[in-house]
Amino acid sequence: MTKKISLIGAGQIGGTLAHLIAIKELGDIVLFDVAEGIAKGKALDIAQSSSVEGFKVSISGTSDYEDTKNSDVIIITAGVPRKPGMTRDDLLSINLKIIKQVADGIKKTSPNAFVICITNPLDVIVMALQKYSSLPKNKVVGMAGILDSSRFKYFLSEELNVHVKKIKSFVLGGHGDTMVPMLELTTIDGKPLKELIQSGRFKKETLNNIIERTRKGGSEIVKYLEKGSAYYAPASSGVEMAESYLKNEGKILPCAAYLNGEYGEKDIYAGVPVKIGNKGIEKVVEVKLSENEKKEFSHSVQSVRELFEAAKKIDPSL
Fold first, then answer.
1. C-alpha 12: how far from chain center
2. Hey, which residues are catalytic here?
3. What is the DSSP code string of 212-234?
C-alpha cells in the first residue's frame, strides 16, 4: 500500500522535501501550509515534472489538516527563520505558538505518524511538539545531527581533498553553537582523524576552524542569502530519516531524540545517534565519549535545558 507523507510548511524546505520525496517515490505527498496558494502552486509545479523525472506519486497542496489524515510520516518545517535583530527568545515565542497549532492538528488527524521536526530552535521545539501532541516519544524526533554531521564531513573533505563518502563522523548535542563533533570517532579513508593530526598532516588549528564553521554553518548561509536560510541540505537530511522509517532500514543516524538516562541525561531532547526502523526510534545508540566530549556534550545539553526553561516561561503549560 502506498505510504502517505505530509509536509507541514510549504516554504523552501517544504518544497524541496516534496521534490526529493517525489523523485524517490517514497509515498504520496500532501503539502500543507496556512498560505494555501503556495502549497497548491508548489504541488502542481512538482507534479508537472513527473513525466520528465518518471515518478508516479500523488502530490497535492492544502490548508486543511483533514487532508493530512492518517499520514505515515509528517515532516514539520512550519515556523519563521531567525531574522537580523531577533533574539532566540523572540524566535522561540513565535515558533512555540505555531508548533502548538501544528501539534493540535497532528494529534487529531495522524496520531500514529512518525513525526520529524525541522523547525528552530530545534531541540526545544521538538520537545514542545512532543508535549503538546502527547505522541509517543519514540515517534517524535528532530532533524539536526544529520545536517550538522554532513556539514562537518563536507568541510573536512574539502580541506583534505578526500571524497566525502570516505569520511565517517557524527556531530552530537544541541543544534547550535554548542554542538559537539565526535573527533575520537572521526575517520578519514579508514584512518583516525587524531592520527592525521599527530602526524602533522592536518593542523589542529585548521580542525578548530572547521568545527567553528560547522557550528555557524546555518548563519554563514543566511549571511549569503540575506533573505532566507538553508533548505537543500536540511531537506536531504529530513528525507534520509523518513526513508529509514518507511523502508525499515534501521540506519544509525544522529537526531534530536528523547533521552531517558542515556548519556547520563534524563527528560530532555538532544542530538544523539539513534536507530530508525519501522517502529520509529528503536534504540538510542550510546557511543563511547572521551572525557572532553562528555564535558562538551553535558554543556550542550545544559544549553538546551536553559532554553526549555525560557520556553516554559513563555508557555507555562509546558
1. 15
2. 175
3. HHHHTHHHHHHHHHSS----HHH
Q: Are 7 and 30 in contact (CB under 8 A)?
A: yes
Question: Looking at the DSSP assignment, which residues form a beta bridge with residue 274?
Answer: 253, 284
Continuous H helices in 145-203: 145-160, 193-198
Backbone angles phi, psi at 6, to 5 degrees: -110, 135
DSSP 173: B
| Structure confidence by residue, pLDDT tens digits, 197-238 | 999 889 999 999 999 999 999 989 988 998 888 999 999 999
What DSSP element (H or E) covers 281? strand 280-284
C-alpha cell of 265? 541525561
- Report how far apart, in Å, the C-alpha atoms of 172 and of each of 64, 144, 230, 255, 270 are: 36, 9, 20, 8, 8
The grid coordinates listed for 148 are: 550538522
User: Phi/psi zone of residue 292: left (φ > 0), alpha (ψ -120 to 50 degrees), beta?
Assistant: alpha
Note the pTM of the prediction, 2 decimals. Answer: 0.96
- Three-state DSSP class for 238? helix
Question: What are the grid coordinates assigned to 192, written together?
Answer: 583516525
How far apart are the C-alpha atoms of 21 and 32, rounded to whole Å? 15
